[in-house]
Structures are given as structure tokens and as C-alpha cells.
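Input sequence (195 aa), recorded before submission:
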Amino acid sequence: MKVQRNGVKARMKAVRYTPVLLAIFICSSGRSATKDPRIAELFGAKLSILKNPTKVEAVRVSSMIWHENGNRHDDAPLGRFAGYPIQSQGVILDSKLTAAVSTALLDSKTYTWCPPNHGCGHLCGFSPGVALRIWGQPSDKPVELLVCFKCNDLAIVQDGSEKYLTQDFSDGRAKLLRLMKEIFLADPVIQGLKP
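Predicted structure, C-alpha cell format:
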């Protein structure tokens, strides 16, 4: 194709290559999510569920498990999530929010990766306020996560127990908080949190 500009003919080769370059850019822009080996190491066998979630439930939990005297709080009328009392009925996310949560959790830029064998060393004490349950195929056990905005830690619950592995999400706090505020629109505590 020839185009006349200021009386000079020019070939428009760039036009032919623009769609190809755009496609390459779009395909490579999501690469950090699943190609980063740290994400695979963090989630292990649960990674496939996070890549293809069929349902996500979000609940508010209380971080008050123990009384000051060391006895466990027995008042959990809505049940417990990894030992933490559930404070509200679960919210099942729509497909848009499900995809957004999955994308955020699989993005390596969400997490602050500490040097090996050093840890990030939060001293605030893990106090989650949000719990997520993510389902994949019907035969899969759901992935259960606890989110603490006090210390910016995500806990991956080990098969429904009260044991979990934590990962710092300080770098992705704003992203995760924005999603939680969208999920818990009427919750004054979540809405009051600062990025």
C-alpha cells in the first residue's frame, strides 16, 4: 500500500506488522502469572484450581480465636474457617470477580518475595479478616486462603486444618484490598482500610 504524504510516496509496512506485535504483547503480558516458578512453589498442587476456578466464596472472619486466658473462643455460631470464627454469611463471587481474584493471586507481582531462608519477619501477629474458598473441578478439594491486611500476609490453609503457609503480599496490597472492597461493599471495616 502506498500513501501520499506531503507529495512523497511512502510504504506502509508498519501497518502489516502492528497486529502481530500487538498480539505478541498481549500474550506475553500475562506471562508472569503462571510462568513464575515461585507461584507454582507457593500453591503447589492447588495451582491448577487457581488457574481455572469454577466458584469463589468470600467470608469475613474474626481473628479472635483465643481468650486472653488461653482458652479457645467457643462462640462461632456460623462455624469456623481454619479455626477462625466466621462473622458473616459467605458471598459467592460473580464470574468477573472470580477471574479478578484468580488473576491477582496468580500474579507474581502481588507478592513480596523475601530472600530464601530469611522470611519477611512480620511481628504484628497474623490476624485475618477475610477468608476465600476457591473451587475447581467437583472432585477437587477447594483451596482455602486467609487474608490479613494488618500484616499483609496471605495464608494458604493446609487441607481444611488450622495449619497454613503464609506469603507476604505487601507489593499487591492495593490490588487485593480493591478486590475485597468490591466484594464487601457494605462492610465498614473493610471499606475503612487504607491501601
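Checked by second reader. Confidence is low (pLDDT under 50) at residues 1-33.
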